[in-house]
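Weekly structure sync, notes
Attendees: PL (lead), two postdocs, one rotation student
Agenda item 3: pending single-chain targets
PL asked that the sequence for the first pending target be pasted directly into the notes so everyone works from the same version. It is reproduced below exactly as submitted, 321 residues in total.
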Amino acid sequence: MTEKLTVPPGNKGGTFLDFPLASNLDDLQAHFAILGIPFGMPYDASSMANDQSTAPDIIRQAPTKADIEYTKNHYDWDLGGHLFAGKDIKVVDCGNVCADSSDHNTHYRYAELVARKIFSSGVILISLGGDHGVPIPVMRALEVLGEPITLVHVDAHLDWRHEVNGETEGYSSPIRRASEMPWIKEIVQIGMRGIGSAREREVEDARQYGADLISAYEMHEIGMDAVLERIPNGGPYYLTIDADGIDPTIMPAVMAQTPGGLNWVQTRRLIHGLVRKGRVVGMDLVEIAPKNDVGNTSVIHAERLICNFIGASIRAGHCFE
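Predicted structure, written out during the meeting:
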């Protein structure tokens, strides 16, 4: 019997912006696919099920019906026109990877299998976490593309820990794990600031690998255009965004609020600039903890971020390659 890899979104099953639900991953006909990956690998029993696991469905449910109508059919000043730019674009929602809070290894295995199917179909993947462990199986799946990938990482934290409490695939380790994947080449990390789990040895390991570490303060000083110039040209790229890399004034729903992150204008500029540089095969948005949100500020910015990524990718022509 074939394993069931995904389930429809929760909260009465609403998809992102009411895009059609795609359950047949072996015959995926789309340009973009939304995928929820609720669980990372926990570090202890208290983190087996965390608030971030609810984020994929809450992000989907945040827009009202009126918001959805406007987003899909009205002029978008972020994009300079209609979301789809008058093109015949299909976005699907693949639901959530099957999850069992007592069996995170199987959840990761399913996430990798689903991502491999999506990438193999030539579809641009937009993953919603979950904590920052969930990009690990997605980045493993990038192997199917058969070409070197430049990883662009937005985060307040370095994420180069080998292990925490013996767990090597949790939210402090995704970039360390990525550095071990032969298909991940250049790594550009943007927005680090404050204090996280990194020690001096992890910083040195990242630098020895050749990761370009651009702190939030350097980013603010030199500007996002200069940051974009430091990202190798041509792509393909994979973009992983930890919500705490964005300033808590606009993304308060995180577990580690740290002043000085990317503002909205910088975040939008990064997304639009990156897709103009080359093909972005996928992105993820992780570490949103909905209980910490203030007036839906974080989920509003999450929706805008995803729509900007879709609209900018269409205008760059990459979803037709």
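Discussion points:
- The chain has one domain: 6-320.
- The longest helix spans residues 297-316.
Action: rotation student to compare against the earlier draft before next sync.
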